[in-house]
Amino acid sequence: MAAGYLDVLRARHAARLLAGTLVGRLPNGTAHIAIVLFTRAEGGSYTLAGALAAAYGLATAVGQPLLGRAVDLYGQPRVQLPAAVVSALGMALLALTGLGSLPAAYAAVVVAGVFTPPLEGGLRALWPTVLGREDRVHRAYAMDAVAQEIMFTVGPLLVTVLVSLWSPAAALLVINAIGVLGALSVVMSEPSRAWRSAPREAHWLGALRSPGLLALLGAFFFVGVALGSITVAGVAYADDHGRESVYGWLMAALGFGALIGGAVYGARQWAGEPERRLRVIVALLALGYLPLMLTPGVPAMTALAALAGVFLAPAIACSFIVVDRHAPRGTVTEAFSWLVTTFGVGAAAGTAVAGPAVEIGGTAWSFAVAGAGGVAALLVLLATGRVLADPGRAPTVVAGSENDRNGAAEPGFSSGHKA
Description:
Layout: H1 2-10, H2 14-24, H3 26-41, H4 46-74, H5 77-97, H6 102-114, H7 119-131, H8 134-165, H9 168-187, H10 190-194, H11 211-240, H12 245-266, H13 274-289, H14 298-309, H15 312-326, H16 332-361, H17 363-383, H18 385-388
């Protein structure tokens, strides 16, 4: 299992790019947790905590594709680092001013969200340049998903440790300072400085003119709903059991399960169409979320959280391949950024719904939102099966034109996304 990942990491620049992106994304990966804990510590309600986290998620959803398109047009260093600095300043404003002025608090999280740098999409655009072979790029996608789960495992624990040692405000400041350093490491690397997107046709829809991409985004909106609702539901569960640390362990267990699932998924080459495989994985993901509604004792709930996470990283890794197969030529960063956006919008919707669900029906109701999100994602994939089955859906397919989805040397491989 490890040999394939080591082969990827031995490639020049690969380890630095993966580590830098992981560290640079830490503020975004922990923002919902940090905002909820900060709001509760400041005396805010669950509804306010959910609303602020939702505002951040929606702002991220707006900013990611816009910044992704800017990266495709102007390159990575000129967009990624300035955006990271502005985003960190937004979170610093929230940490230093608190909730004394709600308009200022909302403005702070909106600025932080809009300027969250599209490091995820940027990394996936760089993999073909750095790795070259299709099998290595696909394995890197799986490794990328596993690395995300390391962040989602360590991130909540790091936030709770910083909160315990100092304060929620200090946690916001430290996490975002670390994020700027990660972005700096990425944009100073040779591949990032040299990368240029493939030529693209000017079109106001950009990547969204691909029907298959739209279908995938619709499904992953509901995966985002599930994940966002768990953020609030986990805090409510921890409050029910009187220990703040319970929340960190639940989120870490969820990330650990996804880490294991992603590591196993990426250790082999999979035959068949990735779109069909994605439907199976999302079905298993939905089944994993449903038992969380039982809300048993802490040890059993931690085990259920780990089980719920097992198919998350495989679903994400498989979705990367599907995005690559359906993205129009020259829109690679934007297309991957739209995937981040759907997660942001979905997570925002999930946190916004789960907050009132806790106050109306209790913790089990908020976990029910997660189960419903997983089922809805599966239904979207089933309903759009014909669209997803044809990555080259277009009136005419001409190599190098907008209908040549990736300008690929082989179907579904974005070899055109090189410097």
